Structure formats: C-alpha cells, structure tokens
Amino acid sequence: MILLDGNKTSDDIKLEIAQRVEERKAKGKKVPHLAAVIVGNNGASLTYVNAKVKACEKVGFESSLVALPETITENELLQKIAELNNDPKIDGYIVQLPLPKHIDEHKVTLAVSPAKDVDGFHPENLGRMVLNLPCFLPATPAGILQLLDRYNIETSGKSCVVVGRSHIVGSPMSILMARNSKVGNCTVTLTHSKTKNLKELCQQADIIIAALGKPEFLTGDMVKQGAVVVDVGITRVDDPTKKSGFKLLGDVKFDEVAPKCSYITPVPGGVGPMTIASLMLNTLQAVEMRE
C-alpha cells in the first residue's frame, strides 16, 4: 500500500510555480494576484482561506483577503464581485463557500467573471471542460488528476466509481476520469444516495473516488484487493482528547480500507493540499491567458 502524499506533491507543484513566477519577475512580467472573498466567520472556511493566502506567499504571488460581514446583503456582495471582475490587478479570485443562507450561491457563481473563475465553478468553465476545451478545471478534481498523474497510476481502461454527485467534485470528476486524456479513459460509474447496489459497484472498482461528505462511509468490505482509493471527504468530528476539540475524518474508514489498497490518500494531507496547488496553477494560467 502506497500513500498518495498530497502535502509532498503540492509542495513539488508550488516549487515549480515559484520558479515560473521568478522567471516572470526577471522578464518584468506581472506577478499573479489571487484574491479570496469570505463572508462571515465560518471556522473551517477561515482555515481554508488562510491556507490559500499562505500558499500565495510561498509561490511568490500577491494575495488579497476580502473579509465581509455575515450581515452583508446579496446586492452588496454582487457589487464587490463586480469590482473584482473589473480590477486589472486581480488575476483570479474565489468566493469561499458556504455563503450565509440569505445569499443565493448560484447568483454569486454566475456573477464571477469566467476569466477570473480560478475555482472552475462558472457554467462557462464547466461547459468548456465537458467539451475538453481550454478552461479552469474545478480545483479539487484537477488536484486529484495531478496526484494520480504524478504517482504514475494507470487509469486507461480501468473501472472507476465516483461516490457523490456534487457539482464541485463528484460530477466534474466523473467527466474528467472518462475523457480521452493521459489521466482518464476510465469506464466511470457515478453513484449517489439513491444508488441501490453501491456496495457491489465499489467491490468491482479499480479506482474509487469517495466524495460524499459522510465520515468513514467507505468500509473495508466495499473495496477489492489492489484498488486505488481517493478520499475527498473531510468532516470535523468532536474529539475532547484533541487540543483543538475535534478530529478530521474522511469518507473512507482508513484503517479497514488501506490494507487492501495499492494506493490511498490520507485525511488530512491527501486531496486538501492538492486543491490549493490547483488553485495556484489556475491563477498562473489566468495571467498567462490574459497575456
């Protein structure tokens, strides 16, 4: 069993990006600038955004944090997004989800300029992804592709089961794993809460991508010997024995599943760091596309 180390792989990618930023500086070109918009004080969201800001420092990007109160109106947020769309200093930005209940996430997603949508959530980018045209890929699925690629995991002709159909991970992941590319050419089954024979489907899969958001959902009896398992889930669970008061659990019951796997991602330290590395790659791509 080999651990797919997202920390190490994302550090490798960040070093490559930092080198490209240095080359840009030497030629007098623009330094990429990533902005992050956060509304309210969601603890997990603040942690993610801070990690993204630190990653920007590491690769030599400029970064801005736009922190807005929970009470902001939908119109005020849309005005702020329009400002970011029109700001030539900002190359790409993300709006951290979830948003407060009084704000329509779809409206916000549609308001983000596709040319600055480094999260890859805008319908224009998703449509281009489906057609295999140049676009910003959603950051988490793109990070998973990078991880599989850099560990030289053969995907062509393999059976891949994606558990979960969210528009952020599950649905785009199913499209990317099926497309005709180096990491792809799988026969993909997209499963969800209404799938009746989920256990049997997982037992036949060469590759399982678990993105359901249910802690330890995938158990040892659902996985065949030698499978590749990618755990996208990350849920905070109360744990009074920890200094933080919580522990992080993935969608995979690691201790049961890992011994059967050829490759598996840990939680934390697997897919999470790769998402941030993808965001950096998308931001660099945004600058280069505008040039």
Give a description of the structure.
The chain has 291 residues and is of the alpha/beta class. The protein has two domains: 28-115, 3-Layer(aba) Sandwich (Rossmann fold); 139-273, NAD(P)-binding Rossmann-like Domain (Rossmann fold, 3-Layer(aba) Sandwich), CATH 3.40.50.720. Helix content is 40%, strand content 18%. The protein is built from ten helices and eleven strands. A six-stranded parallel beta sheet has the order 1-11-8-7-5-6. Helix 1 (6-26) runs parallel beside helix 10, helix 2 packs across helix 10 and helix 6 packs across helix 10. The longest helix is centred in the first third of the chain and has 21 residues, at 6-26. The chain starts with a strand and ends with a helix. The model has no long low-confidence stretch (mean pLDDT 95).
Largest sheet: 6 strands, parallel
Mean pLDDT: 95
What letter string, H or E per element, gives the SSE order? Answer: EHEHEHEHHHEHEHEEEEHEH
Question: What name is given to the CATH topology of the largest domain?
Answer: Rossmann fold
Number of domain units = 2
Alpha-carbon Rg, integer: 19 Å
Low-pLDDT parts are none
What is the architecture of the largest domain at the second tier of CATH?
3-Layer(aba) Sandwich
Euclidean distance between termini CA atoms: 44 Å
Gist?
The protein has helices at residues 6-26, 43-59, 74-86, 105-111, 123-130, 139-150, 170-178, 198-203, 254-257, 271-290, and strands at residues 2-3, 33-39, 62-68, 92-95, 159-163, 187-191, 207-210, 227-231, 235-238, 246-249, 261-264.
